[in-house]
Amino acid sequence: MSERQKDRPWLMRTYAGHSSAEESNALYRRNLAKGQTGLSVAFDLPTQTGYDPDHILARGEVGRVGVPVAHLGDMRRLFQDIPLEQMNTSMTINATAMWLLALYQVVAEEQGADIAKLQGTTQNDIVKEYLSRGTHVFPPGPSLRLTTDMITYTVNHIPKWNPINICSYHLQEAGATPVQEIAYAMCTAIAVLDAVRDSGQVPPERFGDVVGRISFFVNAGVRFVEEMCKMRAFARLWDTITRDRYGIDNPKNRRFRYGVQVNSLGLTEAQPENNVQRIVLEMLAVTLSKDARARAVQLPAWNEALGLPRPWDQQWSLRIQQVLAHESDLLEYEDIFRGSHVIEAKVDEIVEAAAAEIEHVQEMGGAIPAVESGYLKSQLVASHALRRARIESGEDKIVGVNSFEGTEPSPLTADLDTAIHTVDPANEALVVKAVGSWRAERDEARAQAAVSALKEAAATDANLMAATLECARAGVTTGEWSFALRAVFGEFRAPTGVSGAPVAVAPEAGTPLAEVRHKVAATADELGVGKLRLLVGKPGLDGHSNGAEQIAVRARDAGFEVVYQGIRLTPEQIVTAAVAEDVHCVGLSILSGSHLELVPEVLRLLRAAGVEDMPVIVGGIIPSADAEALRAKGVAAVFTPKDFGITEMIGRIVDEIRRGYGLGSLGAAPVTNSASLQEA
């Protein structure tokens, strides 16, 4: 047995939360008992986007993709019997990060904790929300102010807390190359640090403390050598930027500190057992190299392309980490790649290209102007379109999807309806009733006074953390806090990036896209219209728009006129647009699990408007039983991750339009190599 001193393992987390505070608390305590060493809280979409459970936009979304936290009582129950002073808690929360941190602090105080000892992270990276994840609320300027106020508050009052987790994870999910992932994350960091420095809330001699608490949350794909080199490049660039731009002399404060969840974009519905080895390879990218090793790791489960993982599935992913950390000898050695000329050459290449893109964005005025102009979004949409095209052509091979497709029946998915976790649809009504009871029982005068004080503070340049803490203590709800700030700051709809995306698949004669273009044009002629019109809609609060954007881009390239208004629309807004634009098909994209509530409502409203022949199609992570239920209610077609050949999907949409309008068949839609990845 080796006598070498082993390094301490990274923090091991599982991204978890669902249904209610009580159920999530029980899940957390079970996970901690299994050897998990930190918590990673998943909040539901209403909590992330600043709506109470009884708001119209929260319909169907309550407790779906995380835990609903509407007020202090929910946060108390979420962490009941979990001593926060001893815990390291990561909260995936952005637009409402200040609010959730305030609730967390107040619960810790009620437990008797010294808040100066609290350890954890609030994600709090709003820039990537505009680009990829879609839970933004306020415009970029006010959002950056909230981030600045949180950073300065935690540096002074919760010094062990990471107030921001600059999050390139979702940039890769949206199509970013390694160079883009580094460059745009660093541009976000520069924007944040410049704002904190310029706010005057931290004296220059303490700016090193600010830099030292900045952390990152990254993605690791299956190309694990390249991904490991990416992490070494990240560390080198961060050291350079913090030293040269901000004059940070202390190497400890310049250390690149990051957590990771490995890639979900590459998880497949086809042969999902292959996802286990993908997850292991991706984990190795961020653990093998000691000089660039993650400080915290959370792994997805093998079945996340099918739906929500069960506790057993999450346990499997936790055990993967534990085997590497405790059974292997990895932690006994110094960096095993130090001095490798192959690794160093790749790192140099990535650093050079990322530095050039960082400089380009800075010439545009930095990350915020690059968001507002649509530049960053269009770059990601374009990169994603090119990636999808490589998969469809077979240039990029995905095992079990576009290569090695033959398979034995899998015992893991023999019963698809029990292979994933499901949320009881009755849960939402219980949560809605509970928030009503909370409002009825609180000190209403104190709550309203706290909301008024928050609005007044928001209209000045005061740090908003103090007013937010009083809102938390006074029983204000998540929706009330966010709508107070909406009243002062306004709301923001991010650019979609669709119009500026290049043609990723050439419509050359004889290609599948050329055949679909012919079918689109012929159908338009038969209907006597200039172009077929497709509305791509994102109902509810699901902000993961990558798949919808790629459908919109390919439909455009196939000759459709595409109506795409971005994310977060009510069924009423979608139907109003469909009628006003006189579209020939409505395509709905939902990945949050709210399809059984929202899609039938769109159908009902279309019928109420007298629209009978227009087909409605749906795409998303939809279990087979739900897909059958949607078709029974009148949905023309349901696309899930196994239907990932986009050109083929556009052809099938034309077929449904022809069926809906009583036209004869033009023949089968062309067949392409389909790629069954998670975000169809």
Features:
single chain; 680 residues; alpha/beta; five-stranded parallel sheet; 15 strands; 47% helix; 8% strand; globular
Protein model, in words:
The protein is α/β, with parallel strands linked by helices and 680 residues long. The protein contains 25 helices and 15 strands. The chain has helices spanning 21-33, 45-49, 72-78, 97-110, 127-133, 140-157, 169-173, 178-199, 207-212, 224-244, 274-285, 311-326, 341-363, 367-372, 375-393, 427-441, 444-458, 465-473, 478-489, 512-527, 546-557, 571-581, 595-608, 624-632, 646-660; strands spanning 11-13, 15-16, 39-42, 88-92, 119-122, 161-162, 164-167, 214-218, 258-261, 296-298, 533-537, 561-564, 585-589, 616-619, 637-639. A 5-stranded parallel β-sheet has the order 1-10-9-8-7. Helix 23 links the parallel strand 13 and strand 14 (616-619). Helix 4 (97-110) crosses helix 18 (465-473) and helix 17 runs antiparallel to helix 18 (465-473). Mean pLDDT is 90; it is low at 668-680.
Summarize this entry quickly.
By secondary structure, the protein is of the alpha/beta class. Helices cover 47% and strands 8% of the residues. Helix 8 runs parallel beside helix 10.
Uncertain segments are: 668-680
Arithmetic mean pLDDT: 90
What overall form do the CA principal axes indicate?
A: globular
Strand content: 5-15%
Please specify the SSE layout and strand pairing:
Blueprint: E1 11-13, E2 15-16, H1 21-33, E3 39-42, H2 45-49, H3 72-78, E4 88-92, H4 97-110, E5 119-122, H5 127-133, H6 140-157, E6 161-162, E7 164-167, H7 169-173, H8 178-199, H9 207-212, E8 214-218, H10 224-244, E9 258-261, H11 274-285, E10 296-298, H12 311-326, H13 341-363, H14 367-372, H15 375-393, H16 427-441, H17 444-458, H18 465-473, H19 478-489, H20 512-527, E11 533-537, H21 546-557, E12 561-564, H22 571-581, E13 585-589, H23 595-608, E14 616-619, H24 624-632, E15 637-639, H25 646-660
